[in-house]
Amino acid sequence: MQIVDSHCHINFEELHNRLPEVLSNARLNDVTHMLCVAVKMEDFPQVLSLAQQYEHIFASVGVHPCNEDCIEPSVAELVEIAQDPKIVAIGETGLDYFRVQNQDMGWQQDRFRRHIHAAIECDKPLIIHTRSAANDTMRILKEEGADRCRGVMHCFAEDWEVAQKALDLGFFISFSGIVTFKSATNVQEVAQKCPVDRILVETDAPYLAPVPVRGKPNEPAYVRHTAKFVANLRNISLESLAKSTTENFFSLFKQAKRVN
After folding, report:
1. In angstroms, how far is CA 178 from the centroid of its own chain?
2. CA 40/CA 29 separation, integer angstroms
């Protein structure tokens, strides 16, 4: 059995400082591949270095919507950097109004549009972060023609209506530990309704550890708990869910090379 952690941040200090243990734990839990996602250009070299060092780790390039006062890459710069074969996606990018409501969010939207343009130009999928901004996120994706590059709604925490809009654009829906939380009934509904060929699973490690390890620092090994929970919601086996989500990952991230 193979499970892919489609979104993690193993370059962050709390995981990188014990990386051999983290990678060993992942293998012991059938987590055979992982995508280490960039959040700002200043830290990107470390993300790329991890992907180049380990054949089963892939990388993305982009700037998280919450990061201010950081390097702002142009479309051309993102496209050029993304030529490296270990970079399989653009992002994470998107919109996050949670901590900055009632402010002019034009700067976030401009950054988001640049990432979409870069993804289309280099023909790599987008990794989308959206929080308290679903309407603008989906509107901009549609306006900028993101259906041409597709991507994934990472750490999905919205309702079925938003999921349908994303699916209509050809996007995948990725479930994190949030889906295991008792209060996440909307997300659980989406996990039941979403077509099986559009589902991914992730940790977003070191954040959002799933039940039964909620409250601990998250790590790629724990994506198995999320996969098992989603499988139970859908009344299928973990093996079946793992096979589907693994195939989905390599279908979306076309440049990722599977390691046997």
Report:
1. 13
2. 29
CATH number at residue 170: 3.20.20.140
Please count the other Cβ atoms lying within 10 Å of the Cβ belonging to residue 226.
29
In a domain, 79, yes or no: yes
**180 vs 132: CA distance, rounded Å:** 20
- From the list 177, 170, 136, the residue with the least C-alpha distance to 153 is 170
**Domain membership flag for residue 259:** no
Is residue 258 assigned to a domain? no
pLDDT in tens, the chain (260 residues): 999 999 999 999 999 999 999 999 999 999 999 999 999 999 999 999 999 999 999 999 999 999 989 999 999 999 999 999 999 999 999 999 987 665 778 899 999 999 999 999 999 999 999 999 999 999 999 999 999 999 999 999 999 999 999 999 999 999 999 999 999 999 999 999 999 999 999 999 999 999 999 999 999 999 999 999 999 999 999 999 999 999 999 999 999 999 98
Q: Could you tell me which residues come within 8 angstroms of residue 91 by beta carbon, excluding any fewer than 6 positions away?
A: 37, 38, 60, 62, 115, 119, 126, 127, 128, 129, 151, 154
Q: How many domains does the chain have?
A: 1
Q: Smallest Cα–Cα separation from 61: which of 49, 69, 219?
A: 49
State pTM to two decimals: 0.97
Residue ranges with strand state E in the chain: 3-8, 31-36, 57-61, 87-96, 126-131, 151-153, 172-175, 199-201
Where in the sequence is the domain holding 51, given as residue range(s)? 3-252
CA–CA distance, 216 with 128 (Å, rounded to integer): 25
Residue 207, φ and ψ in degrees, nearest 5: -100, 165
